Prior knowledge:
The protein is mainly α. Helices cover 73% and strands 3% of the residues. The protein is globular and about 80 Å long.
Amino acid sequence: xxxxxxxxxxxxxxAFWESEGRFVASRNLAISIPSLTLAFAxxxxxSAVVVNxxxxxxxxxxxxxxxxxxxxxxxxxxxxxxxxxxVPIFGGRRWTAISTASLLLPAIGIGVFVRDxxxxxxxxxxxxxxxGFGGGNFASSMANINFFFPKAQKGTALGLNAGLGNLGVxxxxxxxxxxxxxxxxxxxxxxxxxxxxxxxIKQMWLQNAGFVWVPFIAVCALAAxxxxxxxxxxxxxxxEQVVIFRSKxxxxxxxxxxxxxxxxxxxxxxxxxxxxxxxxxINALSYAWLGPLVSALIRPLGGWLSDKxxxxxxxxWNFIAMAAxxxxxxxxxxxxxxxxxxxxxxxxxxxxxxxxxxxNGSTFxxxxxxxxxxxxxxAAGRGREAEEQAVRDANKEAAAVLGFSSAIGAxxxxxxxxxxxxxISMFGGPAYALYLFIVFYLTCIVMTWWYYTxxxxxxxxx
Length: 462
């Protein structure tokens, strides 16, 4: 198939959008979503693998296990900084295909190395870092989809791409416990490990946690290469994109997205180990997948509500609900002399996952509108050519900010599990980490109100 490079792309033109733009944008979104779902699955596969390492003979401490759960997020967040700028440089089709194919490295690596109990901790650290490739993909995927849709539909499109992509977190925590119990790949997958717990003896194919994603990754990479599109009108060098760092809105939105997406990915990465440490009688993987599922499914609602009500209003009230959710978790945790209430704890975490999902959609819907409004106000009265250029510039800037803010937000996937680990090691429980989260949400509430909901008619309408 010939290389797809579209030389004209103007989704704000109603006639163009209805005649050809909608179909092309929908096709690219349809391929982007499963590719991003797999990226999230590989990124978070370590959260499901690490819980099972002690069961098959690996002698790592609790702190070492929390480090392994946190490292994919640290690497993924750092890679997002660079991935944020890749689509305008290489093109969305090329970069989606390449970045999706890169997921084969950690998927195959996990399958190979978890079969040997003598594998060193440093090898697992490297595998955890390679899983960060999946986290990096989100930045480029969201930047790419932002180019394809008109302003009025960006919130919904970005919400679908991110929300259904986020399903990869729930998918991996649901699928892995199933596939590691059977020899899915027969002799090709290798021999099972033996899990001994008291008088109970089981067989486990932990390598399937990596191998199961390989064929799907290959299909999605090929689909991206042959059926997605590059947009010639939105090419830009790195130097053209770094203008975003001079805007205060870039840094404000990074902080807010750290509060929403950082919470989602951090809670997802740390949830299985947190359950295991606080409620050891509970099978953590039986419940850990529920939170990411709720968050992923509700994220498109955050984008849709923002298109209707305004992203800033949704984000403001959402942070209030998140702070209340953390207070609820604290209430149901085990205390000195009290066992705690697991189902109350679970319900409060479901609230946190749900509000993190809504906030993910609402904060991302704010970004394109902020930069488009600023550019359009600056170009007002300067003629049609200046106004069209303003739209193109705003889309480039918004795409870069979407990617860069997602990079900053992803660091939550590192800090939240590590905060649990530090709090547990220093104070005997995770409560102090949770108090810190409440303080952080309060800063997000204040910043959203001050910059985007206070006298909003005189500022940037979002």
